[in-house]
Amino acid sequence: MLTTQILGVQALISWGLFLFATFAFVDAALHREDAYRAASKNNKGFWLIILGVCALVMKFFPIMTFLPVIGVVAVIVYMVDVRPAVREVSGRRGGAARRLRGRNSGSSSDGPYGPYNGRR
Fold first, then answer.
1. pLDDT tens for residues 9-51?
2. Of 6, 13, 74, 85, most Cβ neighbours within 10 A?
C-alpha cells in the first residue's frame, strides 16, 4: 500500500515537472529570435531543442533517475536567467515593474531625493 502511494506521488511530481517544462517550451517559442541575440543568450532554436528534450525526458523517464534532474536544471536556468532577459529586451514587462525599475525617470546621476550635483 505504501509503495502505491509513493508511486502516486512520483507520478504527480513527474506530471508537474512535465507541465513546467512544457510551459517553458511554449514561452521560448513565443519570443522573437532577435530577442535572444539582443539578450546575449543562445539562439531560439537551441532553447527550443533543450526545453523540448527536457519535456520529453520528464514525461517518459522515472523521476528518480538522473536525466529528469538534468532536465529540471535546464528548465530552471531558462526560467530564472534566459526568460527575464529575453522579456526585458522584448519589452514585455508590466507597467509597475517598469516604474519600479525607474525607466525614463531621469539621468543616471539622480539620487533618491533628486539630482546629485556634487556639492556638499
1. 888 888 999 999 999 999 999 999 989 988 888 899 999 999 9
2. 74
Q: DSSP label at 114?
A: E
For cell 537551441, what's the residue? 46
| Total Cβ atoms within 10 A of residue 18 | 20
Residues across the chain: 120
Residue 74 C-alpha cell reads as 535546464
Rounded Cα distance between 59 and 113, Å, is: 53
Domain count, the chain: 1
- Residue 9 CB-half CA count within 13 A: 6
Task: Supply the pTM of this predicted model.
Answer: 0.70
The CA distances from residue 18 to 23, 78, 100, in Å, are 9, 15, 34
Q: What is the Cα–Cα distance from 47 to 52, expressed in whole angstroms?
A: 8
**Is 28 domain-assigned?**
yes
75 lies in which domain range?
Answer: 2-89
Residue whose grid cell is 512520483: 10
Dihedral sign computed on CA atoms, order 21, 23, 29, 33 = negative
